[in-house]
Amino acid sequence: MLVTAYQRKVLIVAILASFIAFLDGTVINVALPAISRELGGGLAGQQWVVDAYLITLTAVILLAGSLSDAYGRRRVIFWGLIGFGGASILCAISPTDEFLIVSRGLQGLAGALLVPSSLAIIISNFDGPKRAKAIGQWTAWTSTAFLAGPLLGGLLVDFASWRLVFAINVIPIAVTLWLLRGVRAEPPREVKPTIDYRGAVLGILGIGLPVFALIEQGRLGWSNPIVWGALVVGVLAFAAFIVNERYVKQPMLPLNLFAVRNFWVGNVATTLIYAALSLGGFLLTLFLQQVAGYSATEAGLASLPSTIISISLSTLFGTLAGKYGSRLFMAIGPLIGAVGYVMLSQVTPSANYLTEVFPGTVVFALGLTITVAPLTAAVLGAIDSERAGIASAVNNAVSRVAGLVATAAAALIVGDALTTEGFSRGAIVTAILLAMGGIVSAIGIQNRKKPAKV
């Protein structure tokens, strides 16, 4: 099961491309107070600095997956890197809050090109157990972006400037572009690719507007016509998108993907697990800073053990999933993660790190690490490599929308202000979501040997 030098280069490119997009989605949170002090904008401005990136990335990701399948992963990654680098520079030099928000939206558009193509290029160049191991390595390093983002952001903000949170992207982007030169472009498709533009527009509206409504309802409330109007139009657009995809000759999203058992079951599990990941991580970060009194850097350091566990063990569990199948790991991992959040639910207002935060965080991180690489391998391994771009895009869109819904529902769980009791309730809900993800996987996932032709 030796990996060739070329495959190793492909894997590094895929990891770096995804790492850049994932890191920028998490590193920003601890920089928001510093941005607000310099550029103004208040709470609404802070929300939109985060949300502009999430909305554009989530709305465009299905189109990006389709472009990846149609025109090649290398080309899409190249333009995604160029766009992300340019947008990052604009963010770093932003003179006003409004300028920064628009630049963040452009970052999200470019990030959407990077995420599905990076996984698809792995699927296209690796087979069998080597593919599962490669996905494990990809998971290890991209998961690190989620976990290490707050720490890196805290260090940059506390000891330098919030602008470096964006400017620092130029370095890994330049390295990735240099490595990308050695990646071969995919051979031309036998059938000339066509883009389902009507489906693309409907998909962007059908995903983007409900996401916008979910984000803005926390600020404006469901009774605001902007919120419910966006939700209604978005739902109608998504319904029209499904109808269009069913009847158009070359759909952007082939609906027969969902006839593949591991694909649809895996996406149900993704919904539950990533809703838990987003809800639990959001509440824990806020609790440590707002209730327990941790600094931004200290709150970031709290996730360091999780980062180490992910880097150390994701490749192992990806390899084991390739050898024994994903089902066992997708069932056990979320249940272990649930135990971690049950432990965290017992935290006191002082949140002593060594006795109250560290044990639960480590148990959760172990469960998550057992889960993620096998989950990705099960979902994408169920689909033939030609459709890997759109399959990855669907899975990423599902995970992000699940996270947004869970975060939007946080206030319903914890109340108007975060307290120790509210955090405990949120931690228990997180544990329940994880346990449900494990149960769904145990019942529904099958250990397949060959991907389905769709």
Structure write-up:
The chain has 454 residues and is mainly alpha-helical. It has helices at 5-26, 32-39, 42-71, 73-92, 97-125, 128-159, 164-167, 170-180, 197-220, 225-247, 261-291, 296-301, 304-324, 327-344, 353-381, 388-408, 410-414, 420-444. Helices cover 79% and strands 0% of the residues. The longest helix is centred in the first third of the chain and has 32 residues, at 128-159. The mean pLDDT is 83.
CATH superfamily of the largest domain: MFS general substrate transporter like domains
Q: Over all CA atoms, what is the radius of gyration? A: 21 Å
How much helix, percentage-wise, in residues? over 70%
What is the residue-mean pLDDT, rounded to a whole number?
83
Distance between the termini: 28 Å
Write down the CATH topology of the largest domain: Growth Hormone, Chain: A
Work out the helix count. 18
Name the beta content range.
under 5%
Largest sheet: none
String of helices and strands: HHHHHHHHHHHHHHHHHH
Count of spatially separate domains: 2
Report the principal-axis shape.
globular
DSSP strand tally: 0
The CATH architecture designation of the largest domain is Up-down Bundle
Structural class determined from secondary elements: mainly alpha
Q: What is the CATH C-level name of the largest domain?
A: Mainly Alpha
